[in-house]
Target: 3-deoxy-D-manno-octulosonate 8-phosphate phosphatase
Amino acid sequence: MSTINYDLNQIKALAFDVDGVLSSDVLSLHPTGEPMRTVNVKDGYALQLAVKLGFHVAIITGGRTEAVRKRFAGLGIENIYMGSCVKIHDYRDFRDKHGLKDEQILYMGDDVPDIEVMRECGLPCCPRDAAAEVKQVALYISHQDGGYGCGRDVIEQILKSQGKWMNGDAFGW
Model:
């Protein structure tokens, strides 16, 4: 298991794609045509803890389903960009709204639409099963596949590096 080679103490914000990162890259289709996703409980725990600890967290997804919004809003995430056709615009809105610098932001994506953001943020990351083009841009490739704990992997490393893992805030939802 590798560790992130970056000064994690400067990370103040986390942004994630959904499909292929916080859910697997395989979608079931409901009879109505709506895509059905699975999400990882350990990713969810880490996301809500990061929010609770004061990190700015964003979801930037091309998806448009209300279930995605409800899931991540339920974890306390306020910056949810749905139907993001050109993700760099939403990334910049998130960065500028919170007065952040690129080097303070981790972004995790898995496919070609994520590459522009990954080239601009300070810490570009991807799941183990990301597209080859994305892996070339990533500074860190998780040992976990998308939807199977890659979000937890990067969040846990940041919180441990900043001395915020397993403290008093860690033991509740």
In short: DSSP finds six helices and eight strands in the chain. Helices lie at 41-52, 66-73, 87-97, 115-120, 132-137, 150-161. The mean pLDDT is 92.
